[in-house]
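Working notes for the structural subgroup meeting. M.R. asked for a predicted model of this chain before we commit to crystallization trials. I am recording the input and output together here so anyone reviewing the notebook later can reproduce the run.

Input as submitted:
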Amino acid sequence: MISRRLLRIKALICLYAFNRRNDGDLVRAEKELVFSINKSYELYHYIILLIIELADIACNKIELGLRKKIPTPEDINPNKRFVENKLIQQLRNNLALRKYRETNRISWVINPQLPKILYNQLTKWDTYINYMNSEKSGYSEDKKIILKLVTDFLPASEDLYAAFEEQSIYWNGDLEYITVMVEKTLRRFKANSGSEVPLMPLFKNEEDEYFVKHLFRKAVLNSGQNIELIERNTTNWEVERIALMDTLVMQLAITEITEFEEIPVKVTLNEYIEIAKDYCTSKSSKFVNGILDKIVKEMREKGLYKKSGRGLLGETEE
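Returned structure, recorded in token form:
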């Protein structure tokens, strides 16, 4: 499922686009938000299919070697360890993956060169070489190499990042979060797993879906009052002079504090300060942190928000 952090980021990016367009079309903006989240889920499936595609390329190279007029000893006795990787075979037979692929018509036909480039890099990767030459074999070893491929090899590929950014603007910055989803998915598989192992759902539950949609809508609808709150707490600063992304990060934080009683204030502040580090200027996180601290103090004194259940954590310490 798409993490809450990534859902917050999606809301921020769509809020930025909404403000830049300045057309006031909330319905269109909400549709873009849903589309953006669905694209992230599509990327999740693309990465799983990429694992299978790499194995297919390895298989094709073995077949080409066997067809040579004068094959080498390696061509005649190829190392099929990666091609016959048991976890890859489970992914290949997975019903949920097959259904999504067929329903949404996705495949690596869209960019056939990238898997080939990645495979060439993979064969030079020390971890892969050690796996292919190791005397140890079995499901455990097969699973470990695929997990390392997803957590270490793919995230380190500049070619993969560039290709995804070129293919869809909605995938910018997603790879870090989606590879975590893929890793969690792969860990579900066991040696005796059949074809019915479930993949991750789009949302963890209905609460997450409500969270991102309500957060975005309320941030738009309450923009005016949130900006006033920001303005009162930015001494010697005019809101117009604050970077737009900084303002939007603070608007989302304020919205989350006021609209979601069960989320502790400290959790919200930590989330948006971390997001500011990646999506704002180099000095933004400290600036946003300082202003939000003042805003929360005012909101608490005036009773502008209410917390309940888990959301009360940290409130008694203030």
